[in-house]
Amino acid sequence: MAQQQMMKEEKSLGDLFADLAADTGALVRQEVALAQAELTHKATKIGRSVGFLAVGGAVAYAAVLALMAALIIGLSHFMPAWVAALGVGVVVGAVSAFLISSALAELKKTSPVPGETIETIKEDVKWLKKEVI
Question: Taking the alpha carbons of 22, 25, 29, 30 in that order, is the dihedral positive or negative?
């Protein structure tokens, strides 16, 4: 510790500022890389949820088609065949409701703000203030 104090005292003010500028530059590059990695991770997670949302929408569309088929069969024949089509439509509708609600719940839990990066930037600001003073 004493040796480190001596080294600080031996360096000129210009050298200290040059070191500080280099360290700050490296720190900023690292923070940008961290933010980029964090945002990429969040975008992947959001993309997956949007994919499930799209699949849920497609399944809901199939449910509507099945329900329409049930209605057409029921109205045109007045036979029990429409009961089967209606049952399929209800099951497909339940699956789509589950997929859509799961995807929406996951999207609500995902924050687009890079929280880790913000925390490390706050720590870096504290470090920088300590080094300058």
Answer: positive
